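Question (not urgent): is this output format expected?
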Amino acid sequence: MRKLALFMVAIITLSVSATAQSNNSRGQYFRLFAPLTFYHNVATNQLSIASSDPDEVSQAIDQALMHVYLTRPDLIQVTQTEQEKSGALRQDIIEKTVVRQEVEMVKQAEPLPDMPEAEPVEVVIEKPNFWKYKCDTYLQFMQNYVSDNWYKGGENNYAAVGSITLEANYDNKSKFKWDNKLEMKLGFQTSPSDTVHRLKANEDLLRYTGKVGLQAANRWYYTLQLLAYTQFTRGFRANNENTFSDFMSPFNLSVGLGMDYKVEAFNKKLTGTINMSPLAINYRYVDRADLAGSFGVKLDRHTHSLTDFGSQLTASLNWKLNETVQWKSRIYGFTSYHRTEIEWENTFSLRVSKYITANLFLFPRFDDANNWDENLGYWQFKEYSSLGFSYSF
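Got this back:
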C-alpha cells in the first residue's frame, strides 16, 4: 500500500507538468508502471548541478524514482545493468528518445458547399395527347395539245385537279379509338369541242368517314362506322345542257355495325383497315327531283330518299411499293340483297421529287340502282393521269 501511495504522489506531481506536453508521446512513462528498476541516469540527473534534460515531465519522473531509491531501496527488483545483459531494454526509450508517428502530408480537400439534405424538385405532369393529325394535299395538271393538221385528228385539252385529305385519329392505347377522315377533291377540264360548257368538273368529291372502335382482340375492334359523301358542284357532259349530278344530288349516308381489322404487312409497308358490317343502313337522298330516277329513288311528294338495310364492306389500304411508288386503294361495297353498290378507287403515285408527283387514278364502279347502259350495263369506269405538286404533314 505504501508503494501505491508513493506512485500516486508521483503521478499527481506529474499531472501538472505533463499538461503542457500532452501532445507528445514519451517512452519514459513506462518506468512508472514497469517492475521497479534502478536506472543509472536517474541518479546522474539528480546529482548533477545542471540537469541535461529540460523536459519537466522527465525531471518529475526522475525525482519520483529517486525518492523511492532513497526511502525504499528494498522495493528495487533489478538494475539497469542486469536488464541490459538480458536484452530486454530498448535503448531508444531509456535514452528518452521521442517517438513520433510519421504522417504523410496530403492536399487538403476543399470543403463541400452547404447544401440541404434534399432539394425540392418541381414535378410537371403532362396530360398525354392521344390525338394524331395528318394532312395530304396535291394540285396537279393535265395538258394535251394536237395541231390542226395532226394526221389522226384530236383536240387540245387542259385539266387541273386539287385534293385535300384531313385526318384526326384518337387512340388512348387502352382499347378505344376514334378515326375521322375528310376527303375533298375538285377538278375541272376544258375541251374546244364542247361548245356548251367552258369548264366541266372532271373530279368532284366531298366525303367523311368516321369510326368508333372498342378493341376485341389484338388487331380486331368492335366498330360503329359512319360514311357520308356528296359533291361540290354540278356535273355536265360534253355539248349537253342537262345537269347529271349536283350538291346533295345524290347524298349518301351509310351506318354499319361490325368488326374492324387493322392491317400491317410486309414490314409495315402495307397498312390500313378493313371494316365488315353485317348490319348496315344505307340512306340515299336526291335533292333535285329530275335526277331522282337516275339514282334509283322513286320520287313522290313526301320524300326524295331511299333507305335500304343490308351488309357493308369497307377497306382502306396504303401500300408503299418502294421509295418512289405508292398505291392507295379504297373498296366500298353495300348490298341490300335487292340492289348492290361497289366502288374500287385506286391511286398510283410516283414521286418525282420532294414536292412533285405523278398520279394515275383508276375507278371502276358498279351500281344496279342506276340506269342500264347498252355497252357497260351497270358498270361505270373513270381514269385520269396527272402531274403536279404534293405536300403532306
